[in-house]
Amino acid sequence: LSDLTAEELRSFVAAQLERSRGRTVQLTDAVDTDDLVRQHSRLMSPLVWDYAHIGNQEELWLVRDVGGREPVRQDIDELYDAFMHARADRPSLPLLGPTETREYVVEVRDKVLDVLDHVKFSGGRELVDNAFAFGMIVQHEQQHDETMLATHQLRTGAPVLDAPAPPAGRRLARSEVLVPGGVFEMGTSIEPWALDNERPAHAVHVAPYVIDTAPVSNGDYLKFVTGGGYQDAQWWSEAGWAHVQKASLVAPRFWELVDGNWLRTRFGHRELLPLDEPVMHVCFYEAEAYARWAGKRLPTEEEWEMAARFDPATGRTRRFPWGDESPGPQHANLGQRHLRPAPIGAYPAGASPLGVEQLIGDVWEWTSSDFRPYPGFRAFPYDEYSLVFFGSDYKMLRGGSFGTDEVVARGTFRNWDYPIRRQIFAGFRCARDPRPEELA
Ligand code: AVJ
Ligand code: FE
Questions:
Q1: 287 in Cβ contact with 417 (< 8 Å)
Q2: ipTM reported for the complex surpasses 0.85
Q3: Are 130 and 121 in contact (CB under 8 A)?
Q4: Which ligand is in closest contact with the Cα of 394?
Q5: Exposed site from 77, 157, 199, 425, fewest CB < 10 Å?
């Protein structure tokens, strides 16, 4: 972005704004009015809340803050402040209806395009350097689009979304690789649209470890399910065992056993469980228990990022596993291009220098790490994006899913959620400590 002229940057921003809005409109036009305003799950907001919240954040940051313009609808700020009302309570608020919401976001967008026409990117204002605030708002909309996609997955009724099938899988030559460890540069100080928690770049020392070349598949995970994994406390952490019993978990969310066949429901389609696809809709505790059952553990965030970005030949950290170029359809399953994770081995062109595949896209991957700031962290531009979430309540997820847009799915992007959450498009891969003979 820093190589672009101001005019090129303006058209890049305009194209990104249009792309995210296209997706929001697609996800909300796909359902009828009743499906827009109803609560599909207590874990989620009504779709119409996400929709107006997208517009409200855009108004707050781009119309009022960057543009210095008069408010469009100051009276609704409180309704769409995520910290004022829990998701479960949002349906009972006096929200804008679907028609008002659509008019509101269009009005905001018109003003934003005018602000974009007049903004000076080089005025020495950190918020507009490299069009950062615009990038933040594009990513905010895309992140809510992924949340709305998860709401679609929780919705019952006839399917309303469709997409072509992902590329075919292939058998990988190796199921694990040894990473010799050492020092690598984690995080970033140069990605123009990286969010505060990805910054700054810093050196980390990582001990040698072994990591799976692919995410754990449905077929792998099914062995844990049918082998009694959910009934045996020895595989679970104390908190995980308490949760699995309290919530009566017996398999990943959206799986069912019907007449001896394992089925899964995906955006309203009930289908045979595809054994070669990465497992998803498992919580952190399930990922942790599977790993222990398999004689392994989850990778730390440092281990995940080193496997994804470190190039041992040069000692350099790449932007993405495959290099520095932005993701193309040959590299990764992103952006809701397919409505499912791709089978294991579907993206040989997306492999990292260490030979690890499908790190970006397909499914978010649970790591064993809590949400901590990097050394030198500075909350920017607001405390409520990251700062207020630091601590041990959340577990980190990396890599993005099939529902994550490429403008979000950076090699450095960090996501987090409670360890019990299963409605997100999350799976995992395993890691382990090397055996002494592997280090010799
Ligand atoms: C980073 C995905 C956890 O959805 O709660 C959206 C992103 N922050 N609006 C979320 C976010 C404010 C956030 N996650
Ligand atoms: Fe938000």
A1: no
A2: yes
A3: yes
A4: 1
A5: 157
